[in-house]
């Protein structure tokens, strides 16, 4: 059941006559709640790594005879957390740039097959030999779009496929032509997603399993970024998944974006 929020103003005029004005502000209220939640989430996400770093800095400073192993471990953890924070801040900045009205799409002809070769190599580095990664180029379409943004969208979907697939699993990247529409997809044989989560996956900081996302270095912003990039290219993000079996994330581009 949906709650409706009304703003009511009572205006008195002409002695005991009163005018009651009511306005439906449900939408504004919802936006405000989302904004507040967002700020709260951001602060929370930024604070956790900072607490770890600060804790270790204090411990290292307090140590009388500095145990070398302890110092090394502390410094290693600090390094990991600051890296995580940098990723988070970078993703936040990317997202706010994509969201700002003034951010126009600088279009060019993007050689998608060549770009996907690069995404595959980056994926192989991330997987570190733990998965089988393949790229099926079923068409050679170039696309009208922004190369950096497309790189980010394809890269995010590929790295998610790797991060949510246990070692030994398989990841297939495809560039296909389906009824004249160019389609990119990243298919994995990973943990999959239960259906109730699917509609919320592209919300910022929405994660099915917070600890798994953290463990694998996620910022919780990847799919929100992908969704924005898809919208800017009039593309559709399709997700199909089965828990325990794997997922396929696809970007379907309208045929007028074909550049060849
Ligand atoms: P994160 O940085 O947490 O990966 P994303 O926005 O990229 O953030 O993804 C949001 C959530 O969607 C993830 O936390 C994860 O629960 C789920 N998810 C994304 N991609 C996959 C995938 N290929 N397989 C299973 N779950 C996925």
Automatic annotation (TrEMBL):
Residues 41-257 form the Histidine kinase domain. GO terms for biological process: cellular response to phosphate starvation; phosphate ion transport. It is a multi-pass membrane protein. It is found in: Cell inner membrane. It catalyses: ATP + protein L-histidine = ADP + protein N-phospho-L-histidine. Its EC number is 2.7.13.3. Keywords: ATP-binding, Cell membrane, Kinase, Membrane, Nucleotide-binding, Phosphate transport, Phosphoprotein, Transferase, Transmembrane, Transmembrane helix, Transport, Two-component regulatory system. It comes from Ferriphaselus amnicola. Member of the two-component regulatory system PhoR/PhoB involved in the phosphate regulon genes expression. PhoR may function as a membrane-associated protein kinase that phosphorylates PhoB in response to environmental signals. This is Phosphate regulon sensor protein PhoR. The chain holds residues 156 to 415 of 415 of the full protein. It is an enzyme of class 2 (transferase). The keyword Iron-sulfur does not apply.
């Amino acid at each position: 059941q949906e709650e409706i929020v009304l703003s009511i103003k009572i205006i008195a005029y002409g002695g005991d006559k009163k005018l009651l004005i009511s306005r439906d502000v449900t939408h504004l209220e919802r936006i405000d709640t989302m904004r507040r939640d967002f700020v709260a989430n951001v602060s929370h996400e930024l604070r956790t790594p900072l607490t770890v770093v600060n804790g270790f800095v204090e411990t290292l400073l307090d140590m009388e005879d500095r145990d070398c192993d302890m110092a090394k471990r502390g410094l290693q953890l600090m390094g990991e957390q600051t890296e995580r924070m940098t990723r988070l801040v970078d993703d936040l900045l990317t997202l706010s740039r994509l969201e700002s009205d003034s951010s126009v799409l600088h279009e060019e002809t993007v050689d998608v097959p060549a770009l996907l070769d690069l995404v595959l190599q980056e994926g192989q580095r991330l997987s570190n030999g733990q998965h089988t990664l393949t790229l099926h180029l079923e068409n050679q379409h170039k696309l009208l779009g922004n190369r950096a943004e497309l790189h980010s969208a394809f890269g995010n979907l590929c790295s998610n496929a790797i991060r949510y697939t246990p070692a030994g699993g398989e990841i297939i990247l495809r560039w296909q032509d389906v009824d004249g529409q160019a389609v990119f997809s990243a298919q994995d044989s990973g943990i999959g997603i239960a259906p109730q989560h699917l509609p919320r996956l592209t919300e910022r900081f929405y994660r099915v399993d917070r600890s798994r996302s953290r463990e694998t270095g996620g910022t919780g912003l990847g799919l929100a970024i992908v969704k924005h990039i898809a919208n800017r290219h009039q593309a559709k993000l399709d997700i199909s998944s089965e828990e325990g079996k794997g997922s396929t994330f696809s970007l379907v581009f309208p045929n007028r974006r074909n550049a060849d």
